[in-house]
Amino acid sequence: MVFIAGNHDVHHDLTGIIPCGVIVARQEPQTIRAGGWALHTAAVEVDRDPRRLVPEFPAPVEEAPNLGLLHTSVTGEYSNNSCLPCTRDELAACGYGAWLLGHVHKRITLSDAPFAGWVGMDRSYLATADGEKVRVADL
């Protein structure tokens, strides 16, 4: 399990709350290897985090399904609170099999190929891999 801080999390001291064994994402772009997957992510540093990190994300890992995980407003058309802004083209340029996004509380799909979209509140996606190909489906 991986914890990626979002803009609401930076207001709270989560020391002792996150269980042992949970990987806590750093605030800089990184790749976390978990269960054969390459998870590419970065945590929010401050509320309304203005950093443009996506161009700095690591290259895809060969022979692994690559999944981008980010708490972002993308270009801001679905949020009044800018957070780790980026463009759809920047997400696609990373070459990952899919991007699962947080920040916008509605389920919104930005792209189907490769998938990029916000999960939304009280919703779940299931990401599965067939070799290096990532598939995303509703639960």
Automatic annotation (TrEMBL):
Gene3D superfamilies linked: 3.60.21.10
Name assigned to this protein: Metallophosphoesterase
Species for this entry: Corynebacterium wankanglinii
